Amino acid sequence: MKRAFALTDVLEGLPEALGSLLERVAQASVAQDVRIHLVGGPVRDLVLGREIVDVDLVVEGDARGLARAVLDQAGADAFEVTSHERFGTVRIDAGDARIDLARMRHETYAHPGALPEVFPGTLEQDMARRDFGINAMALLLDARDPDRANPIFDPEGGLDDLEQRRIRILHPMSFHDDPTRAWRAARFAARLGFRVDRRSRNVMRDALRDGAFGAVSGERFRRELQSTFEEARRGVHAGQVLRSLSDWHVLSALEPGLTLGPDRMLPLRRLSRAIERPEWPAPRYRPWIAGLSIWLAPLPAALRRRTLERFSIRGEQAARIVRFGRDADRMLRGLARARGRGAVDSALADLSEETVQALYALAGGAVRRRILRWGAEDRRRRAPVGGADLAELGLTGPDVGRALARIRAGFLDGEIANREEALALAEEIAKRASRRKPGASGRGRRGRRTRASEVAPKGVIADTPGDTG
């Protein structure tokens, strides 16, 4: 395992924009006569030969001063600098590239689950405050001699942990100080294929016994949940993370009775795969809402609501997840019975992307193929006529929506091939609508009722308001 790297080694492994930004920071550090170190996850991934997607630096000196030097060098319009005085950190954003700078520091915790109090420190103290050995390494980046390989600074034995494929905490109060580290341990285990060592699991058990997890805010655990599903973009199986947390009794410590049922593993694996390699061109959506909808759907409604409250998920987001748990089986049955592509479109068109993704992950093979075809093809197809065309024929109000739905269904089912055929059906619908109006000639209001199949897509069970997930 390689134990020394040069600045050029780091730059070669970065996306172009991020590499360019790091090079600017390194050059500014020379001009400011301060030393900078790559730290944490980027060093771990460099050693493992994995892609580096984040750059975290510690500065032997004034991090904000270094950030200002970068800004002065490039011009105020080139970058955006955000400073967090409490933690001594600075973030430099340049488009899609971002670098986090921090002064060397050590920290203390007033009580379990509290945010840390931060103080200036040494590089060794900075490493000792970190969550796991694999993240407690640093590499000096020297722009004065960018080709010279510098040894990795490894006071906590992180390189040995990498060789042993082990996730290990650094001190016996680690999970008391920050219980969210348990969630990160599960994420690293799933991402890297590592194991959490026995001592760390015992310390986690002690923190659970002492009630440390109850002291952490729901917002912090929600952020860990969100990161779990975002990491699916890197190939991490979110269900595996949640399975570990369930086995370690972390989930039940957050909310009594909360577990991950074994029947959720396959749908969560499908969702994780779809997040990593989308099955269709999907609009932007929040993967964690789809994942949480899948996870909580089979739980009792009261437990589902308590869990959402524990994660500080409220408002429309919570309502959407609650509705999915109530309606998922009905929606899947409706898709299984849907007759034709138009009926599938009618069932899916008004749903959120999170709901569509969750249904796809839960569905059996035949329904999954219907959802996939809709997402990949039918969703983007446009019917030959629109609302303005129907208005010209005299249709108004709800009649326009019903007519558009019938025309779109016929178009997707191949019953309508072109604009002329669509307008012909529209004229027929307009005539029927005019006969239903009070005082109209012919059968008027006593005439034959128009069948639902004549004005709505065939094979669809109508949703009640608010049931669209």
In short:
With 469 residues, the chain is an alpha+beta fold. 51% of the residues lie in helices and 10% in strands. The protein has 23 helices and 12 strands.
Please explain how this structure is put together.
The protein has helices at 7-12, 16-32, 41-48, 63-74, 123-128, 158-164, 174-177, 180-192, 198-209, 218-230, 238-247, 250-254, 265-276, 287-296, 301-310, 315-337, 341-348, 353-362, 365-376, 387-392, 398-412, 419-436, 452-455; strands spanning 4-5, 36-39, 55-59, 80-84, 89-94, 97-103, 105-108, 117-120, 138-141, 150-151, 166-167, 195-196. It has 469 residues and is of the alpha+beta class. It has three domains: 1-164, Beta Polymerase, domain 2; 256-380, Methane Monooxygenase Hydroxylase, Chain G, domain 1; 387-455, no CATH class. The strands form four sheets. It has a six-stranded mixed sheet with strand order 4-5-6-3-2-9. Strands 1-10 form a two-stranded antiparallel sheet. Helix 8 (180-192) runs parallel beside helix 10 (218-230), helix 13 (265-276) packs across helix 18 (353-362) and helix 15 (301-310) packs across helix 16.
What is the number of beta strands? 12
- Measured by DSSP, the beta-strand proportion falls in 5-15%
User: Mind telling me which CATH architecture of the largest domain this is?
Assistant: 2-Layer Sandwich
Strand order of the largest sheet: 4-5-6-3-2-9
Global geometry: elongated
Number of helices: 23
Can you give the mean pLDDT?
89
Report on the biggest sheet: 6 strands, mixed
CATH topology of the largest domain: Beta Polymerase, domain 2
